[in-house]
Design a protein that fits this description.
The chain is 36% helix and 28% strand. The protein has 256 residues and is an alpha/beta fold.
């Protein structure tokens, strides 16, 4: 087992994933350091969302190594990914938050319950402590007055901000965002991006799959461009957007 660097929150090493003989990830390696914001860009079908799903245990990789918050989720042994036991995997899942493209709030729960449910029943917080965390986060999202509303009574932007509050509630070491604004119109997108920018200023470690190029340029520390299941190019955000080196990256960015 390789030595663990405490500054690395996420380590993905030589990861492969296929679906029905279609190679979706082909030897992906990526490290994310504590306090770093990494944006992942690229065309549809390039493997971006699959990479996030593998990092967050929603999919199992075929081979390779994944480490989150100093704990090894899976290790490569003889060309096959071997996962840790279920107890350790549950502990690892508590180290990250995940914000989905389509909010994934429980429709029959109020905003308050959407945020407090996991805190109470998974993370063993008292109801009073969960309530305090919930209201503090709703203040941060400018949504305190919506605590007892249901998702159907919220705009898409408000629902996504509740999703972000839910992801933050467990005090994760890293948050993954999968196209957090793709289901929103431009006006609602602005509010969600503002929240993510504020988290970046607070040095929250984040991996963001996004199609918002100007946002990626201005907020991310580093941008990773994926296509065909591989990382084609990566580098400092502003440099990659304004002066890409690879022809495939140039062609992709020319469309924006």
């Amino acid at each position: 087992m390789s030595e663990i660097n405490n500054d690395i929150v996420l380590e993905i090493k030589d990861v492969y994933k296929s679906f029905d003989h279609l190679d979706v990830l082909q030897g992906i390696s990526l490290n994310v350091n504590r306090g770093e914001v990494v944006a992942v860009i690229g065309p549809s079908g390039g493997g971006k969302s699959t990479l996030l799903r593998c990092a967050t245990t929603l999919e199992r990789v075929d081979s390779g190594r994944i480490m989150i918050g100093g704990d090894v989720l899976c290790e490569d042994k003889d060309g096959r990914a071997v996962y840790c036991d279920k107890k350790r995997e549950k502990e690892i899942r508590s180290k990250f938050g995940l914000v989905f493209q389509n909010f994934n709030l429980f429709p029959h729960f109020s905003v308050r319950r959407n945020i407090t449910e996991a805190l109470i029943h998974v993370h063993n917080k008292s109801r009073a402590e969960a309530e305090t965390i919930c209201l503090e986060l709703l203040d941060k999202m400018d949504l305190r007055e919506k605590a007892d509303s249901y998702p159907c009574n919220l705009s898409g932007g408000q629902q996504q901000r509740v999703s972000i509050a839910r992801a933050l509630a467990t005090n994760p070491e890293i948050i993954f965002f999968d196209e957090p604004t793709s289901a929103l119109d431009p006006e609602l997108t602005k509010g969600v991006l503002t929240v993510i920018k504020e988290l970046a200023l607070e040095k929250m470690t984040m991996v963001i799959v996004t199609h918002e190029m100007s946002f990626a340029r201005d907020v991310a520390d580093r941008i990773v461009f994926m296509d065909g299941g591989v990382i084609v190019e990566e580098g400092p955000a502003y440099d990659l957007i304004t002066n890409p080196k690879q022809e495939r990256t140039k062609a992709f960015l020319a469309g924006y």
